[in-house]
């Protein structure tokens, strides 16, 4: 592997700013969702993914991938959502090992309310604090990061 390519002072500053800002942003998002809607950020993301899927249902394996969660973590998160009656699971027809997660009507209504507050939080602490060019640069940069990670998996 060889000698590491150490970060210079500017790179180190920007890397640490990213870490601090992203951790603090997720804390704000998670805190707001919990306080206003009783949802974690991970639960909210699952509801979003299901709301955008055909028939509001996805195979658990596909949902884990799209929600960036391990299958084990997703199973626990869906269990909490089932207890809240926001999601239910069904066996896939013709595939006894396959399981669908399905967004309930109550889950969709909860998401609809949560999304209204969530978008305000995202705007206040992310979108509106950046110049449009900086926001575009962040989008480009993190699409490149996601693409690079996908190439290695």
From TrEMBL:
UniProt xrefs under Pfam families: MarR_2 (PF12802)
Organism this protein belongs to: Actinomadura alba
Family annotation (SUPFAM superfamilies): Winged helix' DNA-binding domain
Boundaries of every HTH marR-type domain copy: 1-147
Positions of transmembrane segments: none
Organism lineage: Bacteria, Bacillati, Actinomycetota, Actinomycetes, Streptosporangiales
Protein name: MarR family transcriptional regulator
């Amino acid at each position: 592997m060889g000698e590491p390519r150490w970060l210079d002072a500017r790179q180190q500053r920007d890397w640490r700013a990213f870490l601090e800002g992203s951790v603090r942003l997720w804390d704000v998002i998670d805190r707001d969702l919990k306080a206003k809607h009783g949802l974690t950020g991970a639960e909210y993301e699952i509801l979003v993914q299901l709301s955008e899927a055909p028939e509001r249902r996805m195979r658990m394996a596909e949902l884990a991938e799209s929600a960036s969660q391990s299958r084990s973590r997703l199973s626990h998160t869906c269990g909490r959502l089932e207890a809240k009656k926001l999601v239910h699971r069904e066996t896939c027809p013709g595939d006894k090992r396959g399981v669908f997660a399905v967004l309930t009507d109550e889950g969709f209504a909860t998401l609809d309310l949560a999304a209204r507050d969530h978008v305000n939080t995202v705007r206040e602490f992310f979108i509106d604090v950046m110049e449009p060019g900086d926001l575009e640069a962040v989008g480009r940069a993190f699409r490149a990061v996601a693409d690079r990670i996908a190439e290695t998996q």
